[in-house]
Amino acid sequence: MDRERALVLDDGTVARGRAFGAERSVFGELVFNTGMTGYQEALTDPSYNGQLLMMTYPLIGNYGVSEAASESSGIKAEAFVVREHCERPSHRESRMTLDAFLRDAGIAGISGVDTRWLTLKTRERGTMRAGIVEADAAEEALGKVRTMPYPDAQNLVGEVSTARAVTLPFRGPGTGDAPRVVAVDCGIKRSILQNLNSFAEVVQVPYSATAEDIMALRPDGVLVSNGPGDPAHPAVMSTTVRTVRGLAGKVPLMGICLGHQMIALAFGGRTFKLKFGHRGANQPVREERTRKVVITSQNHGFAVHPDLPSELELSELNVNDGTVEALRHRELPVFSVQYHPEASPGPRDARFIFGQFQRLVSAHRGGG
User: Residue 43's domain is classified under what CATH number?
Assistant: First the structure.
């Protein structure tokens, strides 16, 4: 017999549905993702730390869970909200059901709720605090979600970053002469590491690594990764953002998503929280010089304020809402993108960004 579970929002909404996954109550920030596929990649993306992930596509779990699709060592979202979860997936690479995947990770899920209505509500009111609890505990949970802080008040980056440096050797042609890229792990996705590793040896370091720590590794380039939470959190400003500023001018820098926001902050820019964020695989981005538009995958709740410091140039804009999508430094080899060029499993339009970084790294090695 299906167990009833309730999704409780801080505006007083109680949406009742069926329980799947682990039997536990959980609280966080309800966000929605518009992707039609990629639920496993989204669940395991560290950028969802602290959040209850809701998919807008109505049928989730129909191709199961595979060994190769995870973006990290396990599920990083706090819980999963779907219209319908498929109990009998069909795919040659599937190794388990979505329900089993959640149960094994201790993650609660709720199905049978109207995700379309909840998405429209979120777009109207903005991102809300929420909880998933047993149905008879909904009233008690309502008091908690109305008074608890948003998860981004915590140092969410510190919860998902690697604890120690990890080296990924380059195994391609010309192995002995490969460049070295340091990836500052603020919650990095596995597919970003794979893209970097396709042309370089990669050293993955904690978010708290200093500029001195990183330069001691003799990098040819540094990437500042995606991750969860507020880029202006004091714990992040005093570590990663300070490190970015210390590295500027010494080595080529690239930022992705949270890393993009940190680069802006490092040069005196500002960030702000979006009403409901950009999460999905269909965000159009326009390059301002060429006016070329690419479709991108995105997952972020904060954005860079368009009033930029004079050192930085706005290079790309979001076609839908005009938010800042890419920056470049006017003099130094520093650039960043708000979207995800690795785009696993989304559109691959923007994958050429890694080629741009590779050329910067090569120029630095050659003394250019």
Answer: 3.50.30.20
The kind and range of the H/E element at 130 are strand 128-134
Range of the domain at 140: 4-153
Q: Note whether 289 and 353 are same-domain residues.
A: yes
Backbone angles phi, psi at 140, to 5 degrees: -65, -40
What lies within 8 Å, CB to CB, of 210 at 6+ separation is 242, 243, 246
Residue 343: C-alpha distances to residues 36, 67, 202, 359 (Å): 14, 18, 19, 20
Residue-wise pLDDT for 15-24, tens only, equals 999 999 999 9
| Residue-wise burial string across 154-191, b where 16 or more C-beta atoms lie within 10 A, e elsewhere | bbbbbbbbbeeeeebebeeeeeeebbbbbbbbbbbbbb
Distance between CA atoms of residues 354 and 66, nearest Å: 26
**Residue among 307, 308, 302, 327 at smallest CA distance from 317:** 327
* Cα gap 18→12, rounded to integer Å: 19
**pTM: predicted TM-score of the whole model, two decimal places:** 0.96
- Dihedral sign for Cα 225, 79, 68, 103, please: positive
Shared domain for 320 and 236, answered yes or no, is yes
Residues of the chain with pLDDT > 70: what percent?
A: 99
- Say whether 85 is catalytic: no
Note if 257 is an active site residue: yes
- One domain for residues 332 and 285: yes
Contacts of 173 (CB under 8 A, 6+ apart): none
The per-residue pLDDT for range 154-187, each reduced to its tens digit, is 999 999 999 999 999 998 887 678 999 999 999 9
Judge whether 364 counts as a catalytic residue: no
| Annotated catalytic residue, options 29, 41, 257, 316 | 257
